[in-house]
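task queued by scheduler; priority normal; single chain, no ligands, no partner chains; default sampling; output format set to structure tokens
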Amino acid sequence: MKNWQKLVLVFIIAISALFCRFVLNNDNLARLIVTVAGSLLALSMFIEMIKTLRSGSYGVDILAITAIISTLVIGEYWASLIIILMLVGGESLEDFAANRASKELDLLISKTPVEAHIETKDGSLKDIKVIDVQIGDKLVVRPLEVVPVDAKLVSQTATIDQSSLTGESKPVEMAEGTEILSGSINGDFPITIEAIRLAKDSKFQQIVSLVEEIKSTPAQFVRLADRYAVPFTIIAYLIAGTAWFISKDAHRFAEVLVVASPCPLILAAPIAFVAGMSRLSKNNILVKNGSIIEKLADVKTAFFDKTGTLTQGNMRVEEIIPASDSNYNQNELLSLAASIEQSSNHILAKAIVTKAKEEKISFGQVQEIKEVPGQGIVAQVNGKSYNLGRDTFAHTEDNQIGTTNVYISEDGKYIGKITLSDQLRPDAKEVISELENDLQIKNVIMLTGDDKSVASNVANELGIKQYYSNLLPEEKLDKIKSVPKDDKPTLMVGDGINDALALAYADVGVSIGSEGVSTVASESADVVILKNDLSSLVTSIKISRDTLKTARESVWIGIFICVILMLIASTGVIPAIVGALLQEVVDTVSILYALKALRDK
């Protein structure tokens, strides 16, 4: 039964009890109705509490159970009814607040295109389901419609709004042949596009799948509440027991527990975290669950991959250098490399393929291909075996320093290399400075597979004091594993492709930019920054810290008010029914304060 349905049922019970008491003037029947309802609720809560304890967590439901039972025992059944209303109403309010807080996620999912307009052979349009669109299909996107799949532009020009994907504030002018990402919004004129990916492989669908995964992932908020549950429960019982012992009146015990509202612990922190997740998504940052926000807020050591993370990742081919004893010329070497690399998502591979297309170099057929993480690619072409990647992987040793190279061998013989270059992200230096100085991250460390001279140049330019070069993926993982307990939680920022091991092992794995979305979904990174913007990492940490602060404050505000009310109730000046009403006020204040986490500063 849903919480709102429970609330309706409790209201029916309350109205029935009021009718019996004040219309039929039958106090016993009213008491019976409330007693049965209260006993059933207390029993169901007790069963849930046992399950919670068995899972290794501590709950505060025992306070609510005791309050219901004690008020029924002393005959204050109206107070018991109000407590029941408070508990069920609190759960319904939690649902409302969670839905309010997660509206950004829902908004993104609601934009998912369902149909596409396909151009038939006779030139007419036919509506088909997006999942039925095939690669090569010609589609028409009407004004202000969402582009249904990743495609290339067939029309001469188009004005496309990509703000929900890239964070670009202004629409982008695109020319014929340009790739358009699904989820983008067309401008004021219809355009024709050609599908280049299936719906399930397209950018927007990958983001939506990730959002749906986030929404279905258990919230995992209990850790924060658990820290306060046991001491709060002990304090409540001590005050109630002391009041009963001194006054010799069992009513005092019930009156104290009635105002010992557990809702600030049960509801306030989770609502703050859901609000924080919504605020992050509004800033194009997707976080899988609330526990990640808590870790992100407390990060002490941040690791960064270099290529595509601290650098722009738009590598360009600078030189093609065949070996002196090779039978390949530059074009042949580029054609071979591009043919093998065209199936890889690595940015070096993309740069080589882009160069081949720019030079209008033809591509050959590759029979077999296998990627060796951290080393390169092994491929079979026309009965010959080729290795592309590191120098030693391609059966050579190169003493050239300060450059990024892809080396190529044929049947174990080195045949040449391709030299590439990259540029630092313009905001990288400022981000590193903010992490160290403003956010006081204890250690900022760069991990890279490039040689020491390249790593040293980048580290010096960005002001990074610690870096490690020539690392394989498992060696990056070893660096994260070696972090001492005092320097945790750890953060790993990478491209979500070659850094899968490190992203998965770090306390918080972060992928930045559109290229990493599908990989992140499969490789279990915790945070996806949709904008290709490194400064969003700083934003994510700031929002997480603000969210955690709000969650703690909302809990403490509720606890403080509850303790004051318990002390007053211990003197006997607050009747049980008044205490039950005051409990609702405490809950409302805590929950409304928790919703502060929604607001950008």
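post-processing summary
- The chain is about 50% helix and 15% strand.
- The longest strand covers residues 413-421.
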